[in-house]
Design brief:
Blueprint lengths: L1 H6 L4 E2 L4 E9 L9 E5 L5 E3 L16 H10 L8 E7 H7 L1 E2 L6 H4 L3 H9 L6 H9 L3 E4 L2 H9 L9 H14 L8 H9 L3 H6 L15 E13 L2 E2 L6 E3 L5 E6 L22 H20 L1
Antiparallel strand pairs: 1-9, 2-3, 2-8, 3-6, 4-5, 5-8, 7-8, 10-11
Helix pairs in contact: 7-8
């Protein structure tokens, strides 16, 4: 649509502003070539870079995607590595993993409330789409011990980059913080805060537990890739949502509303747009376009 509009003479802006996800997976059952899937994570998985170092705050699951992307792509000794890792437990994946894409959420897309409660709140085991990735996905490994898990994780890269002793020290330090009700670990604080909301406590956030607790296992390692979603740029418009041409003048009869107007790439919401706020920009620009078009034809 953007290329067609450009050929018609409109001005495109901010096409280099891209929307990326940092929790991408290779799709074991792709719909199109290169079709990746994003994990929609809860707050409990431990996030490590390619060299086995826990990511710093606020690079935590479900927190600051742009900050995490910046850390992974600009930290000097990570420049040659295009992946990171989640380490978690079976207990966490059963409660906290969801996957992007309507085909990965049949209960939600079908508005199946009973199925949602059965599979995500009351059921045992991971939801079926998540379990399929756990069993068949190229980026998932499981093991009963951390040393065995790290060995399998290293097998997924060209050369072994992870040191099991380093990873263990970091996980043990995190696990010790669970015994302190006033933990200074920001991720544990986030888990406890999330569970103050009953909806998250019942269906989204696992009960806090030690990652190395055998009762919560087996351990799971997930290799994460940076996944490109879309451009945040689009058609430049005036305040009536009229598409502007290369000369800056409105193109007669052509309007642009919603994400095609590029408001996520430096428009309505600036360059650090939050995904959950895009609906507002769609409504705002759509209303402006409708009013302007109605006034033109009145």
């Amino acid at each position: 649509m953007l290329d067609i509009s450009a050929r018609a003479g409109v001005r495109l802006v901010n096409r280099d502003r891209m929307w990326h996800y940092t929790e991408g997976l290779q799709n074991w059952d792709p719909i199109w070539p290169g079709h990746g899937i994003r994990i929609l994570p809860g707050p409990s998985s431990l996030w490590f870079d390619a060299l086995g170092r826990r990511l710093p705050d606020p690079c935590l699951p479900g927190y600051d995607t742009l900050g995490t992307l910046r850390h992974l792509r600009t930290t000097e000794d990570l420049a040659d590595h295009d992946h990171s890792w989640f380490i978690l437990t079976q207990k966490i994946i059963e409660k906290e993993f969801a996957l992007s894409g309507s085909e990965q959420n049949p209960d939600i897309t079908a508005r199946d409330r009973a199925g949602f409660l059965r599979d995500r709140v009351l059921g045992k085991g991971a939801p079926k789409p998540v379990d399929a990735f756990l069993r068949k996905g190229a980026d998932f490994v499981t093991a009963p011990t951390l040393e065995q898990l790290v060995e399998k994780m290293n097998a997924l890269t060209d050369k072994p980059l992870l040191d099991a002793a380093l990873v263990r020290r970091q996980i043990e330090a995190r696990d010790l913080q669970l015994a302190n009700a006033y933990s200074k670990d920001a991720q544990i604080q986030g888990i406890r805060n999330a569970r103050r909301y009953i909806g998250d406590r019942l269906g989204r956030v696992a009960t806090p537990h030690r990652i190395l607790d055998p009762a919560a296992g087996p351990l799971i390692g997930v290799k994460l890739h940076i996944l490109t979603r879309k451009t945040l740029g689009g058609i430049q418009t005036d305040l009536d949502s009229r598409a502007l041409g290369a000369d800056g003048a409105p193109v007669e009869g052509l309007y642009a509303a919603g994400e095609v107007a590029g408001f996520g790439g430096g428009g309505v919401h600036g360059y650090n747009a939050l995904e959950g706020t895009f609906l507002g920009g769609c409504l705002f620009s759509g209303r402006a376009a409708g009013r302007a078009a109605a006034a033109q034809t009145a």
